[in-house]
Amino acid sequence: MTVNEILYTIAYCVFLIGAAKSFRENGSKFSIGIMSCGVLLDVLISILPRTGLGFLQSDIGGTNTVMQFAIILGSIVWILFLVAIFLWKKGKLSLFHFLIVVIELAWFIDFFMFTLGIYKFTLR
């Protein structure tokens, strides 16, 4: 398992902890902060390697269709989280919670697909 995969796993778990807390506390500010930390960590892990940060760069050297799908889905997850925050600010908690569930599922699929894409690419 690479450093990226470990950090992506941590980011997703942090988000899940915040989401669980949000469901229990009906969207408390603290739970929003925890989820935001998970999403921010995911964004940083995805963007920082492009800036030349060595230890986060992978030695893959390319992409495949599965990885491209995962990259697009990951971007959609970030956008959905921004929409969820907007709904939370507007006080539409039932839609907010529904969107958090959608994000959890989409992020899981994204993580699985990206990991599959990496291993599929490196096994060739």
- N-C termini distance: 18 Å
Quickly count the helices.
4
How is the quaternary structure best described?
A: single chain
Q: Give the number of DSSP strands.
A: 0
Question: What does it look like?
Answer:
The chain has 124 residues and is mostly helical. It has one domain (3-55, 62-122). The protein contains 4 helices and no strands. Helix 1 (3-25) packs antiparallel against helix 2 (29-47), helix 1 runs antiparallel to helix 4 (93-122) and helix 3 (65-89) runs antiparallel to helix 4. The longest helix has 30 residues, at 93-122.
Outline of this structure?
By secondary structure, the protein is mainly alpha-helical. Helix content is 78%, strand content 0%.
SSE topology:
Layout: H1 3-25, H2 29-47, H3 65-89, H4 93-122
Helix pairs in contact: 1-2, 1-4, 3-4
Task: Name the descriptors.
124 residues; mainly alpha; elongated
